[in-house]
Design brief:
about 190 residues, alpha+beta, five-stranded mixed sheet, 5 strands
């Protein structure tokens, strides 16, 4: 039988106990443990040749500076304020760190489709800050935010507080299933919050 290399020998254990004699443990703090999103979508690495239809995400018209927030035309500014304050819980998260532009485009499209299918209302997309040597913003940050504005079911997005990702992420508010049904029943009507 092989000895587990991570288990200390009795002699090591005794030496440790002697070294720790008289040491008092640190009292526990009043800190709140961070809450992770209830659902994380695993990022699948697949070849670019098997892409789904992401033609709706164009890079045309993207600026060199990423917008810090977006609100779909016709919506109340209070919607964006509620999003910033965490009114809707984050139900899913996508981390695009280390992805190429084309891979990020495909993963974002698939994640948005998945979120709509699962009827998520609020999601987080982590793209990273991607600072460039010349002081400019990262390409992925700019493009992800530009693509989100092109997805019709995205109502709004904003940068979360620094402790939740700051400029390296966005919280995205999606149309709710109830809003979609209402919109389908009303011809030419506006979506309601």
């Amino acid at each position: 039988m092989k000895k587990n290399p991570e288990q200390p020998s009795p002699a090591e254990n005794e030496l440790f106990q002697q070294a720790m004699a008289g040491v008092t443990p640190i009292a526990s703090s009043n800190r709140i443990a961070p809450v992770s999103p209830s659902h994380r979508v695993p990022v699948k690495k697949t070849p670019v040749s098997t892409q789904t239809s992401t033609d709706s995400f164009s890079d045309h018209g993207a600026s060199d500076i990423a917008a810090t927030s977006f609100l779909r035309s016709g919506l109340n500014k209070m919607t964006l304020r509620k999003l910033r304050r965490g009114f809707w819980p984050i139900e899913g998260s996508l981390d695009l760190h280390g992805s190429s532009t084309e891979e990020a485009r495909r993963l974002l499209y698939e994640f948005l489709q998945h979120a709509l299918h699962r009827e998520f209302r609020c999601i987080s997309v982590i793209h990273g800050k991607g600072w460039q040597a010349d002081g400019g913003q990262g390409i992925l940050k700019v493009r992800v935010r530009h693509w989100l504005t092109q997805f019709p079911q995205v109502l709004a997005y904003c940068e979360p507080a620094a402790h939740a990702g700051g400029g390296g992420a966005v919280w995205v508010l999606l149309k709710s299933a109830a809003n979609k049904k209402t919109h389908q029943n009303e011809k030419g009507g506006h979506d309601k919050q």
